Amino acid sequence: MKDSGSSGGDAAAGGGGSHLLVRRVMQMTMVVVAFVVVWILMYNSSSPFAIPVFSRYITTRDSTMISYDPELESVLRNASMENKTVIITTLNDAWAEPNSIFDIFLKSFHLGIETERLLKHLVVITLDQKAHARCQALHPHCYQLETKGDNFTKEAFFMTQDYLKMMWRRIQFLGSVLEMGYSFVFTDTDIMWLRNPFNEFYNDGDFQIACDFYNGNSNDLNNLPNGGFNYVKSNEKTIWFYKFWLNSRKAYPKMHDQDVFNKIKMNPLIQNIKLKIRFLGTMHFGGFCQPSKEFNQVCTMHANCCVGLDNKVNDLKILLDDWSKYMALPNNTKLNVHPSWTVPQSCKTSFQRSRNRKNKGR
What is the distance between the alpha carbons of residues 362 and 355, in angstroms, rounded to a whole number? Predict the structure, then answer.
């Protein structure tokens, strides 16, 4: 009986243990399922916070990395500085026409102070065949970017669908350059290079960007940046940031990259990865929005706050004429004079007209 009772007791205990095990397995299964559901919801959300936070550097669905292209690797390698840094600009047919933006852009390097030697580090990313042919006729480092059926040949007017596609394709491409291990200075082609800018970059900045309007504090996120000029070091933080930036466009589908950057620059995720953002002052990196007043210190001048290709071409030619007159002065005279730009002219009128039309439409 004892054996039988003991046996029965063991069976009862075994049955209870089995039920307990089943319950625990079911509970664990429910936890795993809930975890997966939450992950999927976060992954598919259009919110800029949608990037899974389980890893700071997890690859998002919109990975910036394009398929490995040995031609691109070759172009970057041949143009690279010793520290794997390149200068990058983009070019389409409208801006590549003779006597247009591209010619003026290249001319600025020849007129600038210690800038001509930087041309060997310039990579021109062309967006169509005509621009590519024009680039190859003038410059050694040209790469034609696959645009997946989009036509970027003509002038892309500000905030049109073609313009937005072009800007986001640019962000995607630049992210892939970072993933390939190259740091870069990106420059719009309507920026005149008047002095070597590398001496004016911050040593501690991961991502450094020029401004339309600068408030005097390079660390202040309230500065109004301009995405047409930035210096970005290739590291885990910047690679993650470019993916995050690209993914964030879904939350702001009618905005271009610069406005989306303004939306996300204070995002806690960016602060958590300790991405060091620095804003470049307009004394060294000026433009038509806020011109540099110091000819003895200016590095670049941008035809920003300007609408229309012809207006940009007209005013950039005048700008280079102003600069040439300054450069013709004796060295001792340059230190004692305070010349001023005679631009914007056409750009000022066009920008005011554009702003007036925008205000009337509100």
Answer: 11
For residue 186, give the 3-state DSSP assignment: strand
> pLDDT tens across 270-293, in order?
999 999 999 999 999 999 999 999
Which tops the pLDDT comparison, 156 or 356? 356
Q: Which residue has the tokens 């309007």?
A: 213
DSSP code string of 226-281: EEEEEEE--SHHHHHHHHHHHHHTTTSTTS-HHHHHHHHTT-HHHHHTT--EEEPP
Q: How is 93-155 classified by DSSP, letter by letter? A: HHHHSTTSHHHHHHHHHHHSBS-GGGGGGEEEEESSHHHHHHHHHH-S-EEEPP-TT----S-
Total Cβ atoms within 10 A of residue 277: 21
Please, which residues bridge with residue 183 across strands? Answer: 85
Q: What is the DSSP letter of 200?
A: G
Q: Roughly how many angstroms between the first and final C-alpha of the chain, as a whole number?
A: 95
* Confidence bin at 66 (pLDDT 50/70/90): low
Strands of 265-350 (E only): list them: 277-279, 285-287, 300-302
Is beta strand 183-187 parallel, antiparallel or unpaired with respect to 224-232?
antiparallel
Phi, psi of 198, deg, nearest 5: -65, -25
Per residue in 219-259, pLDDT (tens digit) is: 999 999 999 999 999 999 999 999 999 999 889 887 878 89
Kindly list the strands in the beta sheet with 142-144, ordered across the sheet, starting from the edge strand earlier in the chain: 142-144, 122-126, 85-91, 183-187, 224-232, 207-213, 277-279
Q: State how far the Cα of 53 lies from the Cα of 60, in Å rounded to an integer.
A: 11
- For 77, how many CA atoms within 13 A lie in the half-sphere containing its CB? 7
* 109: nearest Cα among 193, 198, 229: 193
% helix / strand / coil in the chain, to the nearest 5? Answer: 45, 15, 40
